[in-house]
Amino acid sequence: MTRSGAQAAMFEFVARQREARQSAADLTTSAYLTEWLATVAAGGSIRPTTAKAYEVAIRVHIIPRLGRLPLQGLTRKLVRELYDHLKLHGRARSPRGGLSIKAVHNVHLTLHRALEDAVEDGLICTNPLTRAYGMVHGAEGVL
Predict the structure, then answer these.
(1) DSSP string spanning 72-95?
(2) Which tens digits make up the pLDDT trace of 12-39?
(3) Alpha helices (runs of H) in the chain, residue ranges in sequence order
(4) Do residues 115 and 74 lie in contact, with contact meaning Cβ atoms separated by under 8 Å?
(5) Is 42 exposed, middle or buried (0-12, 13-18, 19+ CB in 10 A)?
(6) Span 45-88, pLDDT tens digits
(7) pTM, whole model, 2 decimals?
């Protein structure tokens, strides 16, 4: 490849990356998670029971609280607030009110996996949950 050919390829690559980032900036968390779930469920890489658990976590717990936000706008603080809400009020029809730590942890695992894939797809630069030690259980807990 010539020097000018390499430069042209580089400019084309940069333009495609810029276009992908712009379209990702308009992508809501709800739209991404819905598409992500359909992709992983159809891909056959997860069991049907796992797909169902992901679907419940996304539809019942994540989208109602974070779905309207841009995917690129998710932060550890917002996710921590989601987890705190779920621990206190996650079961709207139950006298107990909140979800168990295990159930909140499962929501965390779903969101973490989806965001890891978003990083791999170039939709976000980093996963805000990568260093999520203690987010579900509190500072003293482990994930």
Answers:
(1) GG--HHHHHHHHHHHHHHS-TTST
(2) 666 666 565 556 678 999 999 999 999 9
(3) 3-25, 29-42, 48-56, 63-66, 76-89, 101-120
(4) yes
(5) exposed
(6) 889 999 999 999 999 999 999 999 999 999 999 999 999 999 99
(7) 0.76
